[in-house]
Amino acid sequence: MENAKELFVKAFMExxxxxxxxxxREDNIQWDFSKKFxxxxxxxxxxxxxxxxxxxxxxxxxxxxxIIAIMVLLTGLMSVAATREPIIEFIKKVLPKYNDITLSENxxxxxDTIETEYTICSLPxxxxxxxxxxxxxxVFSVWKNDAGEEIAFSQNxxxxxxxxxxxxxxxxxxxxxxxxxxxxxxxxxxxIWTDGVYWxxxxxxxxxxxxxxxxxxxxxxxx
Length: 223
Description:
Structural class: alpha+beta
Order of helices and strands: HHHEEEEEEEEEEEEHE
Distance between the termini: 85 Å
Number of domains: 1
Strand order of the largest sheet: 5-6-7-12-11-10-9
Strand content: 25-35%
Largest sheet: 7 strands, antiparallel
Mean pLDDT: 76
Low-confidence stretches: 49-62, 64-83
Oligomer: single chain
Number of helices: 4
Number of strands: 13
Radius of gyration: 25 Å
Shape: elongated
């Protein structure tokens, strides 16, 4: 014989079924999203497509280790009032083999798209532009010389996070008043820094590693 608890549970479930019997099925509900919501979703889709595209960019083996050292991850969209002053604060999570660098939840980036594009001005002699990609949230360029050596430069909005290798000749320096992250590999070097408006990443082949700081210090607005 069913005890009182089992009878109560059955009675409760039957009452809930009867109460919901007149509700429309989920596939019959007409959803009416706000324009603001649809705009945010469009932006999220475009950003996701950009990240997927970045994983298909091809570079020579001389930069593979440097490219692996940084993995760009899409963070959640941030909705902030237009009247709030820009506030930038980065959070560094130190793990055994890499550091995670993220923008704090309270941060308000000055821009959420690429409004001013930058490029490298002091390239070593013999390098020619072979790859150029741009969308609302990032710019990616690769220069190459006759020896097959490459220099890769990217510019991204601040609302991305980085996983940075902290095992291989890893040092932190200051650029523009912010921490910058520098790795040296046998195949080349990688430098990641910010000016408080955008993230910049510079990957260079081994022969150019002594010039990486000079190139980073001499980026300028692209005409």
